[in-house]
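Lab manual, section 2.4: Encoding a predicted structure.

Procedure: take the sequence of the chain (363 residues), apply the prediction step described in section 2.3, and record the output as structure tokens. A sample record is shown.
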Amino acid sequence: MIAKRQNRFEPDFAIPPGATLEETMESLGMSQRDLAERTGLTVQTLNRIFKGEQPITYETANRLELVTGIAAAFWNNLETQYREQLSKIEQAQQMQSHIVWLKSIPVRELVERRVIPAETNKVVVLREVLRFYGVSSVESWHTVWDEPAAAARRSPFFQSSPGPTSAWLRLGQLEAREIHCAPYDKKRFLENLHLIRNLTVQPPSKFVPEMRRLCAEAGVALALIPEIQGAPWSGAAEWLTPAKAMILVSLRGKAEDKFWFSFFHEAGHILHDSKKERFIDDGKDYRDKPEEKRADEFAANILIPATHNASIQAARSAAEITRIASSLKISAGIVAGRYQFITRKWSTFNGLKTKLMWAQKTA
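Recorded output:
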């Protein structure tokens, strides 16, 4: 998503349509009393309209069209623009007290990712950030993202860095929203996950679009969003609607085995856990929670069933790891990752792991 709004002037004043009406009256050579008599309005009513204290109603606009020869739509539009500007001025004044909240949001990174436009006016920045989140106020942001009522839907991870984490999740939601998906089909999703496993031997240029297609066929939108500083999560899973789920994955660590494990871990949440919860995973903490253990076991077994652990542990060379990977029809880097996990020899066979990198996006 690229922010297309350009820097623009935001006036801190509003000109009432009555000012234009006064100019029109003078250009037609009418006095205020003449205009009152011709429109059937009182002089007092016209005074209030001139000052912006009383709106130009549809009925008044129709009268002005007959008297001035200027279309009613013109007066209606002036009135709408005036009231809209008054509302923005009032909102801006209210927002001044919330400017400090922006310090908790990774605004600079959102600008660098061209999600929101670069602005110097803090009130305008605040409006753009609220627009990004799809909320009308900071209070609404807290209701959606941070209030106790939402606690059951979010991970404890959120509490440590609500701004960066919410921004990363929101980027995922917006990307997932654009992915057309069939209604969720649990059986189809599980079947397609086994097909996705076979893609681990392919380069990203081939496995990414195919992963997304297979997920979408089963009602799951796969969003790939680089991690945001302060929110170093590997993956997340949540339901966007009762019939559409989202799996969000970053390239934290960049190693292929971590990427694939994160994906299948989040898939495990979609398959087995409540649609009312949001799961955020950093790849190591909160593993004592039953749902996290279950998701770990699902990811581990779909990639490499535990029955192969003994032979993997016994491997003594890269060639043996490669041979095992070939027999399992899976990437050698994933087998190397399993060896490291079993033996705790975290640097052994690192050369077999492919480093995944984000493709450079063009404007």
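Check your result against the sample. The radius of gyration is 29 Å.
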